[in-house]
Amino acid sequence: MSLHNDAQLIRMANQIAANLGGGRDEESAVAAIRRHLETFWARPMKQRLIAGLEREDSELVPLARQATQQLAERLSEPASVTGPGA
Amino acid sequence: MIEHFDPSQQAQEHIQTYAKDLGTPPPAAGAAMVRLEIDGVAIRVPEGTSVLRAAALADINIPKLCATDSLEAFGSCRLCAVQVEGRRGTPAACTTPVTEGMRVTTQNERLARLRRNVMELYISDHPLDCLTCPANGDCELQDMAGAVGLRQVRYGFEGENHLQATKDESNPYFTFDPSKCIVCSRCVRACEEVQGTFALTIDGRGFDSKVTAGQGEAFMDSDCVSCGACVQACPTATLMEKSVIDAGQPEHSVITTCAYCGVGCTFEAQMKGDQLVRMVPYKGGDANHGHSCVKGRFAFGYASHPDRLTTPMIRESIDQPWREVGWEEAIAFAAARLRAIQAEHGRESIGGITSSRCTNEETYLVQKLIRAAFGNNNTDTCARVCHSPTGYGLKTTLGESAGTQTFDSVMQADAIIVIGANPTDAHPVFGSLMRKRLRQGAKLIVTDPRRIDLLKTPHLGEAQHLPLRPGTNVALINALGHVVVTEGLEDHDFIAKRCDSEAYRAWRDFIREPHHSPEASEAITGVPAEAVRQAARTYATAGNGAIYYGLGVTEHSQGSTMVMGIANLAMATGNLGREGVGVNPLRGQNNVQGSCDMGSFPHELPGYQHVADPVARGRFEAAWGVTLDHEPGLRIPNMFDAAIEGSFKALYVQGEDIAQSDPNTQHVEAALSSLECLIVQDIFLNETAKYAHVLLPGSSFLEKDGTFTNAERRINRVRRVMPPLAGKADWEITVDLARALGYPMDYAHPSEIMDEIARLTPSFAGVSYAKLDERGSLQWPCNAEHPLGMPTLHELDFPIGRGRFAITEYVATEERASRRFPLLLTTGRILSQYNVGAQTRRTDNQAWHDEDVLELHPADAELRGIQDGDWLGITSRAGQTVLRARLSERMQPGVVYTTFHHPGSGANVITTDNSDWATNCPEYKVTAVQVEKVSRPSAWQQRFDAFDRAQRGYLAKAQQEATP
C-alpha cells in the first residue's frame, strides 16, 4: 500500500469537506460529503479511505472523518447495493 | 400564386435550397408577407426581402456580382439593375426591398444593354486566361459574361489596367491575385460582417481602388486570421485556395461535420474521387451558417500526412522495436494480455479512455466494451481534464449537464459575460457571431487574467474587463452575487416560480455576508470593487444577460464550485429559459459534449444515468446481456495513481494523448511506464503511443460515419468521404476487440449503434440517422415530448423540478505564489493550433505558431533581466521546462502564460496534480512558478528528446522491415 496514494486520497477527501462543509449544519455537511464519496469515488478508493480511518496519524479533517465513518457503515449494510439514495 | 419557401424560415430540404446563392440575406423571421409580381409571376415573400432574393426564390435569376446571400446588399456592381413599374431609372435589385403590389421587370432590351455595358467595362481590365485560370468552372465573372451575352470589348485591352499587379502568395492556403480583382468588396465585407476581423480594406479611389490587407501588408503580415471567408466570397480567381489551384475543381461533395473545436461547424467536403480538394463551410449548417476558421477550412492535410499509422503493431515492452502485424494478430495479442492481467490482478486492474474526438457511436462502444467486456467501470474521457466540473456543477444546480442555449441565442443577448474563455482563438466561429452582436450594441464583460482579443474587437456597447488573479474565480462570482442580492437586482418573480425556496434562502443568507462584498474580496481577486459592482449591475439590468465560459472556469481546484456560482448568478437574475440568456460552457474538443453524454464517465451510464441507479442499470444489463458493476470506477488521475501503486495494469486509449495533455507529465510518464499493457488506438504515433505495447491505427473523421455533439447539444452527422487508410473505422476496431474478449457486438453500420443509444438513453430516444438526415441536426433532449429536439433548455421547468441554488464558499487553492515560486502560470490555446497539436502540427498552420512561448509582462521581465526571445527556464514544484520568452502587455504583472500545442515544450511538465475537489479536473490554470534565463533545454526536455528519437526509430525500423 503506497503512502503517496493514501495521502492523496486524504487530501481529496479534505478538499471535498472544505467545499461541502460551508453553509450547512454539521449533520447535513457530513451527509453531503458521504454522498459525494459514494457517488463519485471508485470502490478501491473508498476502501482505502475507510481502511485509513484506523491510522492514528491520519490527517482527515473531522467532517471528512465522520463522512468516511458513515460511508463505512453504509457499505457494510447489504442494502447499500442500491447505491446513493438518501 | 407561387408561395415561395425560404430555407432560412424552415429547416427542411437542406441540400437543394442552400446550394443556391439567393443574393441577399433573409429578412428577420416573423415579418409580414408582401405580394409582388416579377416578370409577370405573382410572388409572396416576407417584408424586408430584396427584389433580388424574391426573384431568386421564384427561380428568376437576375445577373449579379457584388451580391451574395451571406453579406448585406452593397449595390456596387450595377449588374442586377431592374425596372420597377411607376419608378424612374433602373434600381439595383439587391438594394431594393419588395413592396406590396410592386411590379418588376428583370429582362428587356434596355436592361440587357445596360448589363452588357457594365460587363464590358469589367472585362476590359481583366485577364483573358479563362481556360487556364484556377477559377475556371467556378467563376461568377465568367458566368455573368455568359449570362449577359457579352460579345465584344470595344475599349480594347491596351489602356491603363491592373493586369500586371503582383500576386500575394504569402498565406499557405490561398493566393491573392489582384490582377483578377473586380473590386466588388465581397472579401472586405466578408472580413467585416462575417468574420469581424476588419483585416481587409479598399485602398485608393476610382481606378486606383484596390483590396488591401492591413496597411498594405502581405496577407500573412496583416491582422488576417486566415478564416477564408474572403476566399469563399470572392466571385473570381482573385482569392483562391491553393488546393484548388493544384487539383482543379472538385466533382462531388459530401456534407459533414468538422473535427476540431466544440462549435461543430458543418462543412461541404468537396472531393475529386477520394481526394479532398477543399472544405467549404455549409450555409445550411445550424451551428456555423456558412462560416469557418483556419483550422476547419484549411487544416485538413493531416488526414493524408505520411505520419499516419496504417498497420497494426505490437511489442513485448516499450524498449523494443515495433513489429507490424495483421489486424487479427494485434487484436488477439491485446485481448490475451488484457485477460491474463485480469486473471492475475483482478477484474478492476484494467480500464480504458474514450475519445472526445471520435464519434458518439465510437465513444459509446468503448464505454460499453469496458463496462460489459472488461466487467468494471474504469472508463473515463478527456472531458475529465476540461469540462467535468460543468457536468457536476450544472447537474447539481440546473439538473442537466449541458449548456442551455443555441449559439444563435447570443444574437438576442444584451449583456454578455465571458469568463475564462477566449472565443476568438478557441471557438472562432462562435467568436465571430458574438462579435457581430457586440457590434450591434450588446455590452461585454470579460473576466480573465489576460486582456483577451475580444476586448479589442470593435464594439458599439461598453466593454468591461475584470482582470482577476488566477485561482480567485469563486471569490469574484460570489462578489457579483453579493451585489445582485444587496442592491436588490434579483428577479424575484423567477426565483419564486422556478427555484427551490429553501435552497434560495440559504444561498441568500450566505451571499449577503459582508466577506463576499466586492470591497472585501478585492484583496483576493485584485479586481477593483467598483468594477465588480458595475459589472453586476450591467448583467442584472441589461435585459437579456448571457454567460459564456471556458476552461478558465473549470480547470481550477474549485472548478465545480465556480460552475455552480455561475448558475446561481443566472438563476438569481432570471437569466435562464429563453433566447438571449443562459449558462453556456464553450466545449474544447469537437465531441466533448458527446463523450460525456455517451457514458464515458466512470459513475455514469449513457445519458448521465448513475451506475448505482438499479432501474437504469437494469435496462443496460438487459440490453447488453451482462451484470454491471454498481460502483463507480476510476477516473483518469485515479488510474494514474493506481498504476504507479501497482494495482492498475492495463489501459485501452482511443484517440487521446494523455502523455501530452494531462498535467504533471512526469507523473503521467511514470504511470504509463508502469503499465503491463497499453493499447493505443490513434491516427499518429502520439506521445502516449510511445509507451504502448499495441498500436491500432485509427481513422480520421473523413473516413467514417457517425455523429458529433457540439457545445449547444447539437447532434451533427459525420459522413465518410474516403475509405479508412488502415482499413477499419474506429468503431470496427472496438467491435473486433470486444469479440476477441469473448463479448461479441453485432453492428453493420454506426446507425445501428445510434439506434441502441436511442433505446437506452431517454434524452436520445428520438434520435435516428434518418431524422438527422432529414433535419440536418438535432439538439438533445430529443424524445417523444420534444421530437425535434430542444434548442433552449429549462424554458418551463428544470429536470430536477426547481432550480437549486448552491452554497459556494471560496476556498483558496493550495497552489499559491511564494518566495520560491513568485509567479502564477496559466495555460491556454491559440487559434491556429488545436489541443496537443497532433493534427494541426501536421499542416501548414505551423506557419502561425511553430513553437510554444512563455508570455510575460515587461515588468516581470525587466526585474529578471529578460528580453524578448530569451530562453527561459520555468520551474514549479512539479518540474522544469525551457521556453522562449515573449514580452506581452496582455499579461498582468505576476502572471505568465503558455500554450501546450508542442510536445517538446513540456508545458505540462510544470503543471501540478492539484485538481477540482468534486471531479479531479486538473488545476491547469494555476501553477506557481519561477522563471530565469537559461542557456539549454531542461533535463526533462533532454530526456524527452532521447526517448522520442528512440521511439520514432522503433517505428521506422518496423516500417522498413515490412517493406523489403
TrEMBL record, chain A:
What Pfam families does the annotation carry? FdsD (PF11390)
Q: What is this protein called?
A: Formate dehydrogenase subunit delta
Q: Which organism is it from?
A: Bisbaumannia pacifica
Automatic annotation (TrEMBL), chain B:
One Pfam family in the UniProt entry: Fer4_7
Kindly list the GO CC terms recorded for this protein: membrane; oxidoreductase complex
Q: Name one GO biological process term.
A: respiratory electron transport chain
The record's annotation in PROSITE patterns points to: 2FE2S_FER_2, 4FE4S_FER_1, 4FE4S_FER_2, 4FE4S_HC3, 4FE4S_MOW_BIS_MGD, MOLYBDOPTERIN_PROK_3
Tell me which domain of life the UniProt entry assigns to the organism this sequence originates from: Bacteria
The record's listing under SUPFAM superfamilies reads: 2Fe-2S ferredoxin-like (SSF54292), 4Fe-4S ferredoxins (SSF54862), ADC-like (SSF50692), Formate dehydrogenase/DMSO reductase, domains 1-3 (SSF53706)
Q: Identify the residues that the record assigns to the 4Fe-4S ferredoxin-type domain, covering every copy.
A: 172-203, 216-244
Presence of the UniProt keyword Membrane in the record: no
Q: Which residues form the 2Fe-2S ferredoxin-type domain?
A: 32-110
| A GO MF label | formate dehydrogenase (NAD+) activity
**4Fe-4S His(Cys)3-ligated-type domain: from which residue to which, for each copy?**
110-149
4Fe-4S Mo/W bis-MGD-type domain ranges (all copies): 251-307
Keywords, A to Z, come to: 2Fe-2S, 4Fe-4S, Iron, Iron-sulfur, Metal-binding, Oxidoreductase, Repeat
Question: CDD domains recorded for this chain?
Answer: fer2, MopB_CT_Fdh-Nap-like, MopB_Formate-Dh-H
Family, according to the entry, reads as follows: In the C-terminal section; belongs to the prokaryotic molybdopterin-containing oxidoreductase family.
Concerning NCBIfam families, the annotation shows: Fdh-alpha
Name of the molecule in the record: NAD-dependent formate dehydrogenase subunit alpha
Organism, by scientific name, is Bisbaumannia pacifica
